[in-house]
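Methods: holo model generation. Sequences were used as deposited, without trimming of termini or removal of tags, and paired with ligand SMILES retrieved from the corresponding compound records. Each pair was processed once, and we did not select among multiple samples. The sequence and zinc ion SMILES for this entry were:
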Amino acid sequence: MRSYLTYVCLGIAFIVALACTVAAQEGLQRLPKEFEMSFTATTPEEALQWQNAAREKLFGYVEALCPRKSTEELPLDVKIESTEELEVYTKHRISYMGNEGERKTAILTIPKGKGNGPFPAILALHGHGGNEDAVFDDPKVLYRAFADDFARGGYVVLAPSLEHRDYAGMQLWNLIRLVDILESRPEVDKERLGVGGLSMGGEWTMWLAACDLRLKAAIVSGWMCTTEGCLSVPNCQCWELPGFFTLMDVCEINILLAPRPVVFESSLRDPCFPIHHCRDGFAKIRNGYAVFGAKDVVSQDTWDAGHEWHGELAYPMIDEVLKGNAISVYREKNRR
Ligand SMILES: [Zn+2]
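and the model returned the structure below.
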């Protein structure tokens, strides 16, 4: 009986492995021969021009799929639905008006015992299958309660629930509305805003920080890779925004964050993103930052784990940029 089961298990494993290999090969066949707008700038001026042109393209692709509503046309209409007093922070459950005219939910936390602020703030983004609670309640695996860590660390934290859509970029307008909400809060210092997320939350972080310059620092966890790397494993295809797919290598969107500080978390055993492709992607991004004279503010945290949050480089970086006087220090660095 045992040997029969063993053969069945081996057979299933073989079929799964074969299916993955076939899917990966089919994926790689779709790799564009060349990209239309790869980053080739050699001066800060050229790099800035490339960023502006690329951002315009990205806005256009998203707009073609879902038209943007301004907050004048469709006010945020933030409502506090319930409040829970925890030891070190107040936890509000809020609702607000999303870009498509549907009310959406989020958790908003305000630090206690440190006056009324204004505080630095972090947007905390969940991944596939997650929600606003997942980033607070999961201390051991995946998210490691990173939103709770920031809330305890003296940050205003805004953690939304956003649904999976055909393309992750289609949440861009809602993500920008979340930054609008942070800016509108009297407890928040609007000059000290950051964003971080894991998995699809890392991808949303990339899209949002690339397109919204109000964000001063970012943590892209478990979602940074080259296009080749993304296609080499059977990943969800929601990153393949129409039009964008042939525009640039997907890792190059992150050059739109330059010269703002960013940490990329790339674990060694993440099955979604093979580490050598993540290292290739980081090298491209770092070269882009170098053109701005800012390669010191971008780092890659690699450690022995699977698809999960780490925080080892990310927390000190965010503290330095959003809590200290380091913003001016980074600006000084970037001028050189
Ligand atoms: Zn997806």
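The domain at 31-335 is CATH 3.40.50.1820 (Rossmann fold).
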